[in-house]
């Protein structure tokens, strides 16, 4: 037993154990809970950094547990998983700080943080899963641990949202399960392999493989909120802001998109997928989702719902990048995995701040809020501009690579989709920015709360979005630096294409 | 051997009797016919070469069960004495058709079986009989070769007694009036029954008879005494043999009920020290079987008595 | 027709009659009677098949099984009667209530 | 003599002795009932663990009762599947005994007769699992049935009484079918020993006997459409009793079916007859789940969930002759995880009933604040019942799916998936209520944690079973007809 065998498991345990302990903490043990939360998050970041260094140096990490003969739980760290692991670990730390501030006085914090930690554990598991079984396991665990977070408010509305969420994800999970078992029956253990594990198996019925692909991607598309399976996402907005932030940036939606990337690259192999004629329909679905989500976002007055539909649209960039054959588009898709997470979490933190500090929930109420909460709105502006794709922010990098990849693959229509989407993004974000910065304030605010401290709001609410906004800028400006998301995505693409 | 006319009459009579008693509209007639059915069955057992069973059927199948049924009849709520007709409808029709099909198929299978049947265990039982400690093959199977079954069957009986007692009401007492003539008769008859039970028990080792038949007689004696000595105000029998009054109450009764089971269990577990579960050591089988049978007969008698009282005794309808 | 087959067949008929009555007779006493009739039918099959011809003793193993079965039957009959009477006292009727619809 | 040999000799005594002795003594001296119940339940659990270890290490055990080898005597055997059933029964019984202590405290003490019946039920189940003799199994079935009926009566009230009586009558009808089948078997083949019959029996009599026994066991297992007695009986009994009945008594009947059809019946016969079981199982999965969704009371919902979950087992039967090892192990895992999860659910429901005063699902708002540990029990049990990873239920479902797909039995695949989604629906209907606000206070102060921990232990074990799946799956195959087969096949 060496560090190589233990590190992935330790990374899981660093959030699992605090989570389990927190469940049994009495409600008023505020300090212990905070120590557990932050301690776990910090340890996790440290462990992940060790692993990133190791992977970069070419070491491989793998924890393995046999459930049944020929049925192993495998956690390992390849380049792709490191991308999501790093993002999740970093954003978990930030979100934990934010959530502690956000839920200051609300009830049931032990339950909340317990499930919150489980949720992150599952996301980590999804990221590090080394085969389909492990992936499936953490994917389902993610469903289960997010449900209590979605219904955390405890209102009938929250229960309804929870019901819708479960209906979608459980049925999606069933489809995924069927696909996984079926494929398992056909080819044996489903360990993820760069360049695709099906490459080693010739002579399988292509129609069965196509159907399994639909089951697998369909099951994940529920979580990735691809049209027409996106219905649960806007409903789930009843959850507290930190939950929305986590759901949209690293956990649920991202897990779905990540799963699609895994299936296309590491199970089917991107060339084989193209050969089966599966990539074109996937790209089409992604394109439709991108446009549809943006159009719907235009019409939302509720700020969180507008952000939700924006997520529907933006996550499909990742799928689009995956579905276009060629390393350049792949780079665009994978780098967006990180960039979208940074930008969207910033936006949700800001929305949470507005709601918590001033009681603002609707776009109409945002007039002049830029002067009342300049830091928050500055961060929001960076996130929004990034989403639109303004250079040199993170979003621009993604879109640039996606467009170039599309042209590279001879699929010029991608550029039009991206342009249309950018225009629509501008259409639903710029009015917000205009209201916030240039219109006079419509005081009094709906429900203003006096916050302690020198800043416009509690420091634990303010710093997280500011930090992530800075990261959005850095990811764009320093895209060419070593260890940047872009560099890492290029490393992955080289490996997936066997270059 | 082919069946004679008498056999056809017996078998046909049984089936006809069964049909009539099951589908009669007069509940009381059904009950009476059921006792006749049991007695007829006992005759069939003799005809089939199973006198042990005939005795048991007459005593338990027709006797005790019939008594239970008739006792239950007397305690039915007034509205419950009328037998409603039969349930009709598609389900009833379906189950009727299905069961007719089952009957036809089974008889077909039996007919096919008739020609080439395996010998069964008779040869083996007879071959091992000298080692079994008893002379009657049936007793050997019951208490030695398949003693484990019999042990568990005592458990079933104990459990039933326990459950019937839970039904509430006194352990004992029917509340019927009885004349001094009857009491005198009972005072004579009860010891006689007990003696006969002892004889049957002893005889069981080499001929028809054994713990069950003996137990049934003991129960009969108990029921007789219970009938003629109704309980006093405190729920205890107001008279009758002292031993009877004492042993049909509380702890002693519970001890009596479980004695057979406990002795059997004790023997079974103790024998594990030297051999298998219930494996009698050479030469000890006869004595151990007699010990078990004696305890079992007492328990069976007590249990049957309790079962009867549970159905016949207890509180009257409407009583608190 | 052999003796064996005759009595075993009668047993099968009684068994099926008993089960049918168990299903269609609503009165609890009838149901309990039906179980006893069906049980005796089953015993008849055991003994019919155990018959060894011309006055010879029947196979002792099935005899022992039937003896066990008779004791089990009387135990369960007494329990069923006791429960049925309690139910009758509580509801005033000797039928099972239509309980299938409760939630 | 090393400890393994000691166990190999004494195991029937260990499994039957304490429970039967305790049961009889608790009957004679009711005051000792509580102490005997606790002590014997613990002892039995220890014995089960020891025997699991013994069988896993040293292989299956056999014992000839009376020292007479079959066919003259009665054979007992403890193979992998049997010892797993013994373990499940022992764990649920132990947790139930611990829980009963506080469950009945609300009513003063356990009703008279509870402890002897409880101990007899434990012994009868053990006896049933280890018996290799068809007639002995009949006696065991009756013993089990009587104890179970008695325990249902203890629920008190006319409803429980009616449910118990219905249960008794149906059970007796089923027993008679089984009994006639055994008679036919003996008449035709001259023995009632399972292994001997497996090697000798063939022909129409075998088919007829098996059909009769199977019909009887269908009634006892409460498989659709013979399930009508089950929900009122399991829903109306005291909670620890419901746990035992739903977790084990019905599954015992399925266990016998597995033995009959996979050890005794020739393959050709099994292929002909078992699709019936598949059809009934499929109907049960859906019907039970739909009724669980409609149930208004928690305990009744759990009882209907049993109807549904049993359906999976019957669904698995027709797949077994061909997919052998995977389905056998899958069924074993499913039986085990269902027993643990269902036991936990009923014990949890009992706590709810005692604390809240009712178990109407609509009235459970805010339960997560009042009884967090019990809600955790529901969550964990739900994970296993729905078949979410990493629970034992998940592994079982995985194996069943694997077998079904490998044979191209798509109808079974569809039912398995639909059943999982429906299970999710009915379990989360309850959990959604629990997480809704509706109770402003904090944790319920008066509830002894001792009442909740046993249930939590069972539920956690059901989930943790998934991590021991490899070991359990291999153990289940020890001594089975599929010993040595690969667990997970790949389609040719």
Question: What report would you give on this structure?
Answer:
Chain A has helices at 3-23, 30-56, 79-102, 109-128, 132-150, 156-187, 206-224, 232-235, 241-249, 252-268, 270-275, 279-298, 303-323, 327-358, 369-372, 374-388, 394-408, 413-438, 459-477, 485-496, and strands spanning 61-68, 71-77. Chain A is mainly alpha-helical. Chain A has a two-stranded antiparallel ribbon with strand order 1-2. The two termini of chain A are 33 Å apart. In chain B, helix 1 (5-23) runs antiparallel to helix 2, helix 2 packs antiparallel against helix 3 (51-74) and helix 5 (122-132) packs across helix 6 (137-145). Chain B is globular. Chain B has a domain at 136-320. Chain C is an all-alpha fold. Chain C has a single domain, classed as Orthogonal Bundle (Helix Hairpins), CATH 1.10.287.3510. The model of chain C has no long low-confidence stretch (mean pLDDT 88). With 492 residues, chain D is mainly α. Chain D has two domains: 1-265, no CATH class; 276-492, no CATH class. Chain D is 76% helix and 2% strand. Chain D has 19 helices and two strands. Chain D has a two-stranded antiparallel ribbon. In chain D, helix 15 (372-386) runs parallel beside helix 18. Chain D is globular. Chains in contact: A-D, B-C, B-D, C-D.
> Based on the structure, what is the oligomeric state of the protein chains?
heterotetramer
Q: Which structural class do the helices and strands of chain B define?
A: mainly alpha
User: What is the strand arrangement across the widest sheet of chain A?
Assistant: 1-2
Q: Which structural class is indicated by helix and strand composition of chain A?
A: mainly alpha
Helix content of chain B: over 70%
The largest inter-chain interface, given as chain pair and residues per side, is: B-C, 98 and 82 residues
Distance between the termini of chain A: 33 Å
What is the average of the pLDDT values of chain A? 87
Instruction: Give the radius of gyration of chain A.
Output: 21 Å
How do the helices and strands follow one another from N- to C-terminus of chain B? Answer: HHHHHHHHHHHH
Overall morphology of chain A: globular
If you compute it from the alpha carbons, what radius of gyration of chain B comes out, rounded to the nearest whole angstrom? 22 Å
Helix percentage range of chain A: over 70%
């Amino acid at each position: 037993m060496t560090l190589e065998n233990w590190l992935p498991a330790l990374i899981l345990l660093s959030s699992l154990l605090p989570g389990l302990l927190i469940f049994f903490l009495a409600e008023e043990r505020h300090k212990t809970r905070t120590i557990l939360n932050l301690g776990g998050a910090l340890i996790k970041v440290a462990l992940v950094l060790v692993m990133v260094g190791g992977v970069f140096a070419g070491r491989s990490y793998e924890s393995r547990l046999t459930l049944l003969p020929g049925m192993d739980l495998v956690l390992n760290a390849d380049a792709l998983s490191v991308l999501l692991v790093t993002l999740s670990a970093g954003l978990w730390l930030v979100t934990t700080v934010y959530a502690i501030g956000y839920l200051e006085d609300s009830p049931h914090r032990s339950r909340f943080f317990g499930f919150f930690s489980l949720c992150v554990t599952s996301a980590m598991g999804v990221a590090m899963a080394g085969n389909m079984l492990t992936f499936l396991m953490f994917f389902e665990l993610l469903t289960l641990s997010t449900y209590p977070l979605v219904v955390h408010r405890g209102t009938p509305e929250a229960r309804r949202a929870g019901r819708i969420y479960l209906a979608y994800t459980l049925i999606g999970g069933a489809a995924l399960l069927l696909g996984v078992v079926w494929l398992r029956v056909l080819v044996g253990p489903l360990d993820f392999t760069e360049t695709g594990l099906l490459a080693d198996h010739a002579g399988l019925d292509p129609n069965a493989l196509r159907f399994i692909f639909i089951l697998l991607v369909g099951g994940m598309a529920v979580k990735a909120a691809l049209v027409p399976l996106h219905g649960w996402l806007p409903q789930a907005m009843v959850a507290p802001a930190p939950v929305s932030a986590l759901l949209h940036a690293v956990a649920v939606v991202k897990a779905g998109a990540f799963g699609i990337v895994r299936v296309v690259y590491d199970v089917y192999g991107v060339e084989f997928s193209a050969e089966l004629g599966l990539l074109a329909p996937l790209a089409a679905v992604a394109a439709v989702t991108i446009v549809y989500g943006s159009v719907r976002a235009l019409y939302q007055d509720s700020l969180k719902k507008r952000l939700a539909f924006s997520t529907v649209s933006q996550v499909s960039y990742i799928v689009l990048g995956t579905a276009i054959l060629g390393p350049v588009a792949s780079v665009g898709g994978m780098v967006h995995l990180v960039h979208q997470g940074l930008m969207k979490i910033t936006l949700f933190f800001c929305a949470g701040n507005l709601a918590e500090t001033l009681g603002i929930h609707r776009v109409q109420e945002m007039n002049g809020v830029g002067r009342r909460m300049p830091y928050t709105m500055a961060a929001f502006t960076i996130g929004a501009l990034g989403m639109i794709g303004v250079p040199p922010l993170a979003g621009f990098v993604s879109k640039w690579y996606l467009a170039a990849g599309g042209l590279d693959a001879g699929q010029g229509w991608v550029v039009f989709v991206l342009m249309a989407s950018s225009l629509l993004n501008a259409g639903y974000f710029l009015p917000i920015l205009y209201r916030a910065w240039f219109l006079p304030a419509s005081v009094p605010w709906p429900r203003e709360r006096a916050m302690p401290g020198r800043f416009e709001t509690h420091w634990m609410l303010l710093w997280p979005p500011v930090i992530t906004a800075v990261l959005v800028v850095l990811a764009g400006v320093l895209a060419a630096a070593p260890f940047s998301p872009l560099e890492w995505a290029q490393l992955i693409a080289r490996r997936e294409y066997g270059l | 051997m082919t069946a004679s006319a008498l056999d056809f009459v017996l078998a046909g009579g049984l089936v006809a009797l069964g049909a009539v008693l099951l589908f009669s509209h007069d509940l009381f007639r059904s009950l009476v016919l059921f006792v006749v059915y049991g007695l007829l069955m006992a005759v069939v057992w003799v005809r089939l070469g199973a006198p042990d069973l005939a005795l048991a059927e007459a005593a338990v199948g027709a006797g005790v069960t019939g008594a239970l049924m008739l006792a239950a009849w007397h305690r039915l709520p007034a509205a419950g004495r009328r037998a409603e007709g039969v349930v009709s409808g598609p389900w009833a029709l379906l189950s009727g058709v299905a069961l007719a099909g089952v009957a036809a198929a089974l008889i077909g299978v039996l007919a096919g079986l008739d020609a080439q049947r395996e010998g069964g265990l008779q040869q083996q039982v007879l071959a091992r009989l000298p080692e079994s400690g008893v002379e009657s093959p049936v007793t050997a199977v019951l208490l030695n070769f398949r003693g484990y079954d019999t042990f568990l069957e005592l458990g079933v009986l104990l459990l039933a007694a326990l459950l019937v007692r839970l039904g509430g009401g006194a352990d004992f007492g029917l509340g019927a009036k009885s004349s001094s003539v009857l009491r005198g008769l009972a005072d004579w008859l009860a010891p006689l029954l007990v003696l006969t039970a002892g004889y049957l028990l002893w005889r069981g080792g080499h001929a028809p008879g054994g713990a069950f038949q003996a137990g049934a007689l003991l129960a009969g004696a108990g029921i007789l005494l219970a009938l003629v000595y109704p309980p006093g105000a405190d729920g205890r029998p107001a008279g009758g043999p002292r031993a009877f009054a004492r042993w049909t109450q509380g702890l002693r009764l519970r001890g009596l009920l479980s004695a057979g089971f406990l002795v059997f269990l004790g023997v079974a577990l103790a024998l594990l020290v030297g051999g298998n579960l219930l494996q009698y050591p050479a030469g000890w089988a006869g004595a151990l079987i007699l010990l078990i049978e004696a305890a079992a007969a007492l328990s069976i008698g007590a249990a049957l008595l309790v079962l009867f009282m549970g159905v016949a005794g207890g509180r009257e309808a409407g009583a608190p | 027709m052999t003796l064996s087959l005759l009595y075993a067949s009668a047993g099968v008929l009684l068994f099926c009659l008993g089960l049918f009555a168990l299903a269609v007779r609503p009165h609890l006493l009838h149901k309990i009677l039906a179980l006893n009739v069906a049980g005796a039918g089953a015993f008849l099959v055991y003994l019919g098949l155990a018959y060894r011809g011309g006055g010879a003793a029947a196979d002792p193993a099935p005899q022992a099984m039937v003896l066990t079965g008779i004791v089990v039957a009387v135990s369960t009959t007494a329990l069923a009667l006791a429960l049925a009477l309690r139910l009758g006292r509580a509801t005033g009727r000797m039928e099972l209530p239509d309980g299938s619809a409760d939630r | 003599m090393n400890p393994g040999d000691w166990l190999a000799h004494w195991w029937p005594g260990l499994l039957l002795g304490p429970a039967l002795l305790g049961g009889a003594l608790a009957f004679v001296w009711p005051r000792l009932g509580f102490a005997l119940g606790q002590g014997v339940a613990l002892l039995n659990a220890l014995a089960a663990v020891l025997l699991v270890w013994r069988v896993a290490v040293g292989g299956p055990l056999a014992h000839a009762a009376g020292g007479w080898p079959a066919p003259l005597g009665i054979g007992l055997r403890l193979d992998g599947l049997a010892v797993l059933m013994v373990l499940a029964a022992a764990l649920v019984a132990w947790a139930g005994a611990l829980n009963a202590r506080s469950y009945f405290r609300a009513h003063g003490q356990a009703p008279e007769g509870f402890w002897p019946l409880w101990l007899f039920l434990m012994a009868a189940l053990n006896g049933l699992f280890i018996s290799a003799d068809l007639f002995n199994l009949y006696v065991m079935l009756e013993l089990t049935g009587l104890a179970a009926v008695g325990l249902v009566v203890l629920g008190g009230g006319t409803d429980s009484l009616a449910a118990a009586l219905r249960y008794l009558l149906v059970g007796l009808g089923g027993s008679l079918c089984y009994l006639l089948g055994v008679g036919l078997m003996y008449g035709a083949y001259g023995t009632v020993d399972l292994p001997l019959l497996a090697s000798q029996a063939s022909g129409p009599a075998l088919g007829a006997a098996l059909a009769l026994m199977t019909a009887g066991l269908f009634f006892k297992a409460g498989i659709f459409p013979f399930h009508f007695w089950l929900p009122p009986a399991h829903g109306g009994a005291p909670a620890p009793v419901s746990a035992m009945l739903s977790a084990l008594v019905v599954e015992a009947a399925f266990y016998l079916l597995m033995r009959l059809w996979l050890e005794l019946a020739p393959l050709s016969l099994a292929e002909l007859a078992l699709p019936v079981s598949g059809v009934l199982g499929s109907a049960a999965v859906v019907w039970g789940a739909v009724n669980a969704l409609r149930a208004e009371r928690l305990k009744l919902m759990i009882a209907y969930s049993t109807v549904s979950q049993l359906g999976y087992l019957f669904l698995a039967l027709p797949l077994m002759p061909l997919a052998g090892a995977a389905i056998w192990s899958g069924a074993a895992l499913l039986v085990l995880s269902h027993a643990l999860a269902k036991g936990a659910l009923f014990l949890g429901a009992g706590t709810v009933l005692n604390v809240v005063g009712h178990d109407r699902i609509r009235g459970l708002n805010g339960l997560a604040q009042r009884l967090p540990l019990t809600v955790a029990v529901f969550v964990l049990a739900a994970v296993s019942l729905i078949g979410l990873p990493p629970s034992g239920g998940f592994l079982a479902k995985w194996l069943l799916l694997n077998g079904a797909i490998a044979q191209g039995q798509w109808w079974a695949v569809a039912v398995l998936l639909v059943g999982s989604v429906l299970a999710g629906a009915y379990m989360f209907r309850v959990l959604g209520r629990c997480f809704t606000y509706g109770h402003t206070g904090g944790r319920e102060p008066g509830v002894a944690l001792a009442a909740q921990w046993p249930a939590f232990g069972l539920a956690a074990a059901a989930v943790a079973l998934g991590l021991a799946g490899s070991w359990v799956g291999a153990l289940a195959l020890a001594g089975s007809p599929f010993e040595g087969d690969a667990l997970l096949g790949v389609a040719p």
